[in-house]
Amino acid sequence: KVITINPAKPPPEFKAIGLKHVPAILHEEEGYDAVDDIMQYIDKKFPGGGLEYSSPEADLATKDFFSKFCFYIKAVNQDPTKLDQALKNLNGFLESALYSNGIANGMTDHQNENEIPDNPYEFLVSSQLTHLDCEVLPKLQHLRVAAKELKDYDIPMHLRGFWRYLHAGYTNPVFVQTCPCDQEIILHWHDRPETPKLSHKKHSVIAKRSQSFHIMFQSMLLL
Predict the structure, then answer these.
(1) Does position 175 have pLDDT exceeding 70, yes or no?
(2) Which CATH architecture has domain 51-222?
């Protein structure tokens, strides 16, 4: 069972079991709210789930984009150059076909886009979700929704690998069922102290409208 909460105002039952951060897991009276602890517990409690992975290259390709987003989303920063580069690096990894047992051996930033073969995997290092995807996909969704609403930033449409990867997430029931709605993402980032602020009217409209999910694609991305 997945329960969404407001981290700024967690319900009493959340705090009563000693949890302070999200995401968190509660299972058989054991609770964890650190990502590494959650992953270790799942691997130990449910062995053979297929979430394990080993890919230093994937770790490297995904390590910068969220920190660049967190810096860019601040109200004082109007330059998306570093975020663009981090997304370009991730896209290069996703478009690379130089895989061996789920490990990429090179980036493709300087190749002609028309000559880049497709990643043979749906996800980062496998045809199924791994721990890394469970961490990266939600962050990409936060980036896509919040950056558009608060900074009018659009992820470049020519990043084919990126969009195909995000589409794989949108068509996976695990991600769809656990993905927060647009409103939760927007208001979460809006309420942070250094981010751009919506007008009172727009904030009220977003808070009151029915839940929606930003999963639109251009047809070219699905080819």
Answers:
(1) yes
(2) Up-down Bundle (1.20)
